[in-house]
Specification:
about 40% helix; globular; about 375 residues
């Protein structure tokens, strides 16, 4: 597969905050003034979510000749809940004070929300698209959430979630298209740029665009390249930016099940448009090869979590770079979680039951 060079962004970035208009039902009413997101929102999010997340480390990356010895990995597969999604989910749920939440998710966002709902006593309903990973759906149900399956793709899933939230008078917390979610995901970028301030390029896996938009916000005033990496079967941001407007692509089936979004989000799109430096597309074979390479180095990532590394390897630049390993909810880890939950008594006074983590090799940090 080749790099999707349909569009290249503004390498220097711009200053200040970005005006974005959230999707109907995803945040403030479209009739309200545009929401502005900036560095202050990321700082507020970092403080708000601190009791519910860990500061993940930067790990030495594999060093094939193409990428040189300076490639680091932001280890979000070690995040509580098994992925970076815990950050955005926690920021939205805590800020909104919701008692009942609806979301549409392919898995990791739902797992993060289900874990929070279990701890906070929130009723959660998750809408799943056709082709959702069975192990992730089972983990969501085991954590106590209700699941609803639709027959179509991500677009149908999101529409059903919006309708269901309205019917139940619940708060809709999308997986990426919400300013609070984007701000929470942006804390990944603030952490890695603080820990590796000489970084030249950050490679970001890109599905709905919440993580990429958050990293763009974190890097807005810094001389660092931000590169989004999309599955070649669904390069919705590259094609949309080339067209100058958000486009909806048909449903696809890629091994990166967490990156199957069909259309850029209304909140992430303008942030990405104004700051991203490049977008790369990688094929399923490249994603699986990157997944296998990570596992040889002891990093148990799911295919979606290996997409940024696949992009870094494709780019082949010898530079100081960070690739975000966005998730580690592999079938084996999810089955272990399911067994743990099945055999754990639901005692509200038990700390063990109240703080179940999808990471079998990471201890929970609570305040």
């Amino acid at each position: 597969m080749t790099t999707v060079d349909l569009w290249q962004g503004n390498a220097g970035g711009t200053t200040g905050s970005v005006a974005v208009r959230p999707t109907t039902g995803a945040g403030p009413s479209p009739g309200n003034p545009d929401v502005r997101l900036g560095a202050a929102d990321l700082r507020t999010a970092a403080v708000r979510i601190a009791p519910h997340v860990v500061r993940t480390p930067l790990l030495p990356g594999p060093a094939p000749a193409a990428s040189g010895p300076d490639l680091l990995l932001k280890a979000e597969h070690l995040q509580l809940g098994g992925s970076f999604k815990m950050r955005g989910a926690a920021n939205a749920v805590l800020a909104l004070g919701a008692e009942q939440v609806v979301t549409g998710s392919s898995g990791n966002h739902a797992i993060a929300l289900a874990r929070l709902a279990r701890c906070l006593g929130i009723r959660l309903t998750v809408v799943l698209a056709a082709g959702a990973a069975p192990a992730k759906a089972a983990a969501v149900r085991a954590l106590g959430a209700e699941t609803v399956q639709v027959g179509g793709g991500v677009a149908e899933r999101e529409e059903r979630a919006r309708r269901l939230a309205a019917e139940r008078n619940a708060v809709l917390v999308p997986s990426s298209d919400h300013p609070l979610v984007v701000a929470g995901q942006g804390t990944v970028g603030t952490e890695l740029l603080a820990d590796a301030p000489d970084t030249q390029t950050v490679y970001v896996p890109t599905g709905g665009g919440g993580l990429l938009a958050g990293v763009c916000l974190a890097a807005r005033d810094l001389p660092v390249r931000v590169v989004g990496v999309e599955p070649s079967l669904t390069p919705r941001y590259a094609r949309s930016l080339a067209a100058g407007r958000p486009l909806q692509l048909p449903p696809c089936s890629t091994v990166a099940d967490g990156l199957r979004g069909q259309r850029p989000g209304a909140v992430p799109y303008p942030i990405i448009r104004d700051r991203v430096d490049d977008l790369i597309a990688v094929g399923d074979a490249e994603i699986l090869a990157a997944t296998a390479l990570l596992r040889r180095y002891g990093v148990d990532a799911e295919p979606s979590g290996a997409v940024a590394l696949a992009g870094a390897l494709r780019a082949g630049r010898r530079e100081r770079a960070v690739a975000i390993v966005s998730g580690g909810n592999t079938p084996g880890r999810l089955h272990a979680l399911h067994r743990t939950l099945t055999h754990t008594q639901t005692d509200s006074d038990s700390d063990t039951d109240s703080h179940v983590d999808t990471n079998t090799n990471t201890k929970e940090h609570t305040s």
